[in-house]
Structures are given as C-alpha cells and as structure tokens.
Amino acid sequence: MNLTLKIWRQKNASDNGGIETLDAPGISPDMSFLEMLDVVNERLIDKGQEPVAFDHDCREGICGMCSLVINGIPHGKEKGTTTCQLHMRKFKDGETVTIEPFRAGAFPIVRDLVTDRAAYDRIIAAGGFVSVATGGAQDANAPPIPKVDAELAMDAAACIGCGACAAACKNASAMLFVAAKVSQLAHLPQGQPERKRRVLNMVAQMDKEGFGSCTNQYECEAVCPKEISVRVIAEMNRDYLCATLVGAE
Amino acid sequence: MKLDSKIPSGPIDKAWDKHRFDMKLVNPANKRKFTVLVVGSGLAGASAAASLAELGYKVHCFAFQDSPRRAHSIAAQGGINAAKNYQNDGDSIWRLFYDTVKGGDYRAREGNVYRLAQVSANIIDQCVAAGVPFAREYGGQLANRSFGGAQVSRTFYARGQTGQQLLLGAYSGLERQIGLGNVIMHNRSEMLDLVLVGGHARGIVTRDLVSGKVESWAGDAVCLATGGYGNAFFLSTNAQGCNVTATWRAHKRGALFANPCFTQIHPTCIPVSGDHQSKLTLMSESLRNDGRIWVPKQKADVGKDPRQIPEDQRDYYLERKYPSFGNLVPRDVASRNAKMVCDEGRGVGPGGLGVYLDFADAIKRLGENVIRERYGNLFEMYERITDENPYKVPMRIYPAIHYAMGGLWVDYNLMSNVPGLHVLGEANFSDHGANRLGASALMQGLADGYFVIPYTIGNYLATAKQPKVTTDAPEFKAAEAEVKARIHKLLNVKGKRSPTSFHKELGKLLWDKCGMARNAAGLQQALDRIPLIREEFWQNLNVLGDGDSYNISLEKAGRIADFLEFGELLCRDALHRNESCGGHFREEYQTEDGEALRNDEEFRYVAAWEYSGDLAAPVLHKEPLEFENVHLATRNYQ
Prior knowledge:
The complex is a heterodimer of chains A (about 250) and B (about 650).
Chain A: E1 3-9, E2 18-24, H1 33-46, E3 69-70, E4 73-74, E5 96-100, E6 109-111, E7 114-115, H2 118-127, H3 147-157, H4 164-168, H5 175-186, H6 195-208, H7 219-223, H8 231-246
Parallel strand pairs in A: 1-5
Antiparallel strand pairs in A: 1-2, 3-4, 3-5, 6-7
Helix pairs in contact in A: 2-6, 3-5, 5-6, 5-8, 6-8
Chain B: H1 12-22, H2 28-31, E1 35-39, H3 43-55, E2 58-62, E3 80-81, H4 93-103, H5 110-129, E4 155-156, H6 162-179, E5 183-186, E6 189-197, E7 200-208, E8 214-218, E9 221-224, H7 245-252, E10 257-258, E11 263-269, E12 292-296, E13 314-315, H8 317-321, H9 331-343, E14 355-358, H10 360-366, H11 368-386, E15 395-404, E16 407-408, E17 421-423, H12 441-464, H13 474-491, H14 499-514, H15 520-540, H16 552-576, H17 600-603, E18 605-610, E19 619-624
Parallel strand pairs in B: 1-2, 1-9, 2-5, 9-17
Antiparallel strand pairs in B: 3-4, 6-7, 7-8, 10-16, 10-18, 11-15, 12-13, 12-14, 14-15, 18-19
Helix pairs in contact in B: 1-5, 3-6, 3-12, 4-5, 5-12, 10-11, 14-15, 14-16, 15-16
C-alpha cells in the first residue's frame, strides 16, 4: 500500500507547530498503525530527519498510552479499538491519512503527537480510590457482591485512561473518564463510605483542570476504545446531584 | 563474596512470622525522617510506594511513562493465584508452595516461595477492599479458574484484564498518597544510574525525558521495581519501553545479576506476520482451559483449511503426551512441544511457525455465549490483529519471549548485596526459579510491594544507621557527570544506523542462539558476535536531535546500549549452565523423550554474576539451593 501522511509536527510546547506531508510507500496491510509509523520513522532517520514523536507502550490496547487523532477521529474510525490495535488493512491504497495529537486544553502538547495527560491522574488523586491502607482488609468473600453489580463495576473499570473521550468532545469534557471511576466504585460495597465525597472531589478537580461540561452528544462513547457506556455519566450526575444536596458526609 | 540468603532458621511455615517479630521497627514518629526512592510504578512499585507512604515514609516514585497507570503489569490478562481454597478442591499454602517450587524446576529458594504462598491470600483481600472488580459467581462469591502447572482452581480474575484491574487498584492507592502529598511522583523520568555513598545505595540519577534535565535524588533506601529484560530479544510480549537499564546500571555499581538465562517463553502468542513486527501479542494462558492445541498428523495437511482436517488426522500432542495435565502443562513444556512439532514440519501458518488452539469443542459443549463471556476481549484482539474469526477458525499461536525469571540477586528481605538497594517484582530473581507458573507474576509483584517490603525496609532503616546525605555529595556529582558524558557520547557518534536497527540485530541473534533451545556452539557464536555489534553501535549509531528536549531516539539508544551489554551476560549464563531446567533448555541435556534434564549435583545453585569492568569477564558467585521441604524430583506432568 502507498499512503500520504499529513502529520502534526511541533518541536516543543512553545512552538507553533504545523502539518507536514510525508509519503509512506510500501506499507503492508498486516502492519499495525504504529508499526507503519515505525517504518516512516526509520526512513526519516535514514534521511537525517528527526522521527515523529508519538506516545505508545504496550501495543496491545490496554495501557492507554497511545493516542492520535486519525482522520479526525481519536484512535481512528474502527469501533472499540485503540490506535495500537488499528491495522493498515482498514485503510485504502493511495489514501491520505491525517494524524494529529489528542486535542483538549487540559492536554498540552509535549512534542509532535505527544500530549501531557497528567490532568487525569490528578482527578484520580482527588478521589478515585477507596481509602484502605495495606493490611487491614477483611476476607475477600466477606461482602458477597451480586454478579450483576460486579459486572457493572467491571464494565466501568475497563477504562484505560487514554483521554480519547475528552479529545473527541467539542467541549473537551472528561465526564466519561471521571464517571467511569465513579460508577465502578458506586456499584461496589467498598465504594459506599466515600461515595458522596468522591464524586464531589473528582468533579471539582475535573473543573479545575479546565475540562468542559457534558452536553450529551455522546462523541465520547463513540470513540471510547473500551466502549464505556454513557450510562456511567447518568449515574455520576445522579450521585453528584444527591451529594450536592446532602453534602459530602 | 559469601551470599547470605538470610532465610530464618526453624520450620518453614513459621519462618516469616518469626522473622517479622525479629526485625527491628522504625518508630512511627521517625518514619517521616526517612526517604525511600521507588523506581517503577507497576504492581510491585505502585503497591510498595503506596504502602510505604501509608506507613509514614517520605516516598519518591519514578516512571518513564506519562502516568504510573501505564506500567506493563497492566497487560497481564489471565489472573492471580492465591491459596484461598474457596473451591474446596484441596488447595492450601503448602500446595501453592509445592506447585511453585516444582513449576520452577527446583531452581527457586524455598523460603521465599513459601512466604509468597502465605501472603497470597492477603493480596486478594487487599485488592477486593481497594475496589478491584474480580469475577463473581451468582451467589456473590469470588470465581476461580485453572491455570497451567496446577490441578486446583486457585486463579482469581477480572475478565481478561486482571493485570489492569490489579494495577489500577494499586495505582489508585498510589494516587491517594500523591494527593495527600506523601508520595512525590516523577512521570516521564528514567533512572540512568544508582548512587552509592559509603557502600550503601543512597540515591539515583534520572533524566527528565521531556526537558532532558539530568537530576540526582538522595534517599535512605532505593527500591527497584523496574520489571524484566525480555525486550533484549527485540520481539517479545513486553511493552515497547520495557528495558534493563535500571537493573543493569545497579549491576554495574555492584549488585549481582542472578540467573539471567532463565527467560520464559509464553506458549500462546500470536505468530509473527512480517519484518515490520514491533511486538508479539500474548493471548492469555487461560485460553488453554477450554482451547485444545493441535497440529495435523501429516505434514501434507499443514496448508489445508483446519476445519477440513478430520479428527483422526489431528495430533492433540499435549493431551497425547501429558494425559493428566493435557493442555494445561506449564509454559516451558507447552512452548518446547510447539517448537518440536514445528521443527518436524507440522507447524501451520506463515513460515510453518504456528500451532492451532481450537475452541470448536468448547463452543459445542458450552455455547458461543459462554466462550464469549470468558474470553470475548481476547478473541476480539486476535481478530483485530490477524483478520481471522476464532469463533469459526482455530487460532494460530506460537511461543514468544514473555517474562524474566532472572533478575538482580536479593536475600529474604528483598535486599540486594548492595546495602539499601531493594529489588521487587520481576526485577528480582527470587521466586520463580527456572520457570514461572501462570498467574504468579501478579501474585509476586503485589506480595513484594504490599506485604514484604513494608516490613523489611523498616528493619534496614532501623539498623543501617547511615548519616544523612544530600545530592551535593561528590558521589552524586560524579554519577551525574558520567550520565551526561554517556548521553553526549550517544549523540555524537553521528554514524549511519538507527538505534532500532541495532536492537533488531541483537534481538534476532539472542532468539536464534539463546531462545527456546540453546546449545554450546550457538551460545559461543552469540558471545563472539555481540561485542562486534556493540562495537559497531558505538561507531555507527545515528541519534538525531539533542539531549535537552524530548528525544525518542536518544531514549531508545540508551536502552539498547544496555541491552547490548546485558545480552552478553545472558548468553554467558546460558553457556555456563550445563543442564536443562525450566525455560533454560540446553539441547545437549535432554531425556530420550526430549524433556529437560536437570543436573542437581552440579547446578543446584543460583548463579549470581558480579560485574568486574567492561573489559573483564564477570565473576560467578554461587548460592547453593537447599530443598528441605520439597523433594527434588524430575518434573512429571504425564
């Protein structure tokens, strides 16, 4: 396959950046999208040009480090797929592919396609946990958890924290990410003692980071590589409303 | 050098309790006066950093990724073992201990393994309390599945994402401590050297991967939880960033490297599809619960549609050779047998390097929905990569480098021979011997971080009585200068070849000569060749850009430079160990049936290598292994 790539290049956070056009001939349909970029980078190095920086690590769709907006869609157009699991057989020979970084004010660009998503960590640090110290846990089977609740918690817990939800949203809202953690813990008995405090603190941190609000367009759900349902946002809104009315305690 | 494992005396089942009582404690008010540097944020690193901070220590944690949640523990799929005996099927601490020692082909230290089995049950309790959504039965109780090398169901799981859920549990505890100001997290920060002051590990030198700034960090103890070295082989199931740099630099500062030749080949990975391949994707071993592994009986059938090959023309070779364990034999046995049938010309798929993993019977027996519920995400992943639907066509799998049983030598306290340098999780050598059983890596990482290091590090800090140091000490300045000089050197070779081209060359050599099967002649060839690759690396490397910015080539080149040194030690260890055991299969040492032939007389020891200069050969130290509780026997899974 022969492709034309239009790639966002930006030297560092303060550089203006711009789109660079690169030819990518001789691409195998069995390559993953990132393997295609590996090949492009090796060719750039051989020509004495610096390679394109992009985030990636596990390359099996679970670490959440890969990103990229491919032809306008975070993680590309394949449903329920991270960029690293997207394969070139899904593209057409001769196609022009536009590759940009995840875009959201709260995800500043580090270089080229690499962004800083530490805002998500800070939201978790604000309340996305159960306050349990090591050592004092009761037997794991002691609170029986109905299978249906465990499954609902697991559906939400599948979030990989990649940031595609915020990148896809016209408001750069992080609601799907935040709500996934809120929902996971709200469905488990372990999450109950801090349930109200958690949702208030996480939402406050989300706002502080500069993420926008949800206006129910569901772009986030459409691009989520783990197909997290917007149901979690409804659940979070309910918990948030309730916590606002009665307070954190 | 005398290697003292510090295993407590007395009966093994009382040893850890006794040791915990014998160890010195740090007064709660004094804990905040101690700083611990934790390198790595996977299961071992995150659980250690969070637990130590909860106790009151000041903790710095370092990760090369953009967030601690990215660490490669996250990719573990199948599950975590624990001796809970919830299934009433005969499990016990003693049986988990026994299975692990046997599974490791009698090359692990009994005392460490027993403790691992003991604390395994606490891990599950801890994770559930932290909100990990393990799979449940309708009655609300935890579900279990079986894994290789065991005849009981003791594996806890969260769909095919157990590592992710456990890591996010540990990560949330870590983030809580970060939010409280008890842990200072350094993301995109790579450890490039260990600093010793007065013979004790007192700090590290890091490079900020974004700004390029080289910085020193001083503390009272250092914990390395930096994972394994599988990426030395270029193609492995590891994440792209996994590297040996932290442990290798510690080795060059005096820490012994133990059993580097014990590398695990995972039997169920998606086969290579071409030269562009950047990694091999693992399909969880849990698939072997329901999938049946086979190849055609006749070579002539290898190109045929597998569904057209009749039952009597299929060779379910694991079920045939190992009737009692069947498809659930340990990983080393399953991998080696896959290689054997492929070597016989009966392999399937491109290049004949693959075997079938077939779910047709399980789907017939249980229905497609049950299979989808158990393995749905794995089947989807397989289809995405191969463009084949495994509900309809058998999967093709082939073994790939997966896990490093070897690592830095540690004693019972998880401390290396360098006082103050502790090593946790995959980065140490201690618990898995020559072969790790499935679902035991998660167990060990969390055991070390949650339940061992919080006790043993206190004992070290209470007894070491070292003066406080700051990064102004000359030892820090000297280490920083060395790191800077090395970065300068990498940037100024200005040759023609990319870093990756060297990595691929080394990886192929290691896989060919020191992979699933090894022999003396091949290992010697590798040992002759590696110094030449290294020489060319330093003469013909091309790293573009500068050291003061985000530079992916520079990062990579530094890691590859270390792999090029480490690879030699890997082969040297494999060549010296004149026996076959676990993942280390030397072709010269096998039974008539092609099984591994151990030599307990001569090699029942841990091989711990001491660095003695770039030009001198490393010095071998031996820690003899005593088996007082598990009878030494030939592993038999028939």
